[in-house]
């Protein structure tokens, strides 16, 4: 009987694991969006702190975007359960004045927005890992728009698995970057790196910032060429940097972007 119960419980665990993974990944997916204009395409996610909602992405996402607006690709399900894409224009600048808040040292920025949002489109601040790095060797997931590709016409991101590839040699306060074994593409910057926090909830452990390439300079008689080959590795910033930047944004006077 004990053997039977052990086998039965083990089988239940095997079947329950994918369900749990699907729940936390779906919760993260609902809060992850494409952010783009004609000069910048990237990934972002939405965090809420009380009544305030913040777009979180890599700082270069905002800096490379030209003009005063970008498009945030929202989604909402209709009564029949079909998801519809909802492009929203958000204001990122007023003239030359940036409306986002950049971390003083790192490639990360947040911007407060005032938008009518579908249910589940934001995650609370306690979804962020508040201290330190994710553990070396731990499996993680990321949600992004590699090469600007959307999963479908509704504008959902694509999911990939990776592991934390770097062991932290310094305290996070001195060096908040870590490496994952996934190739970042244009459009991936700002995508969340996350794990399963249990009970169907994600825990955000970082944010994708850059691809790591092997660089070769090849010189011939007539020319010199620089060849960059993706190594299957990407840089990410640890989640406490996101929390720091949101707190910095709250302490500054901002003009929120409104929906159109």
From TrEMBL:
InterPro entries: Peptidase_S1_PA
Single GO molecular function: peptidase activity
Signal peptide: 1-21
Record GO biological process: proteolysis
Keyword vocabulary terms for this entry: Hydrolase, Protease, Signal
SUPFAM superfamilies named in the record: Trypsin-like serine proteases (SSF50494)
Domain of life: Bacteria
Pfam families: Trypsin_2
Record-given protein name: Serine protease
UniProt organism field: Luteolibacter soli
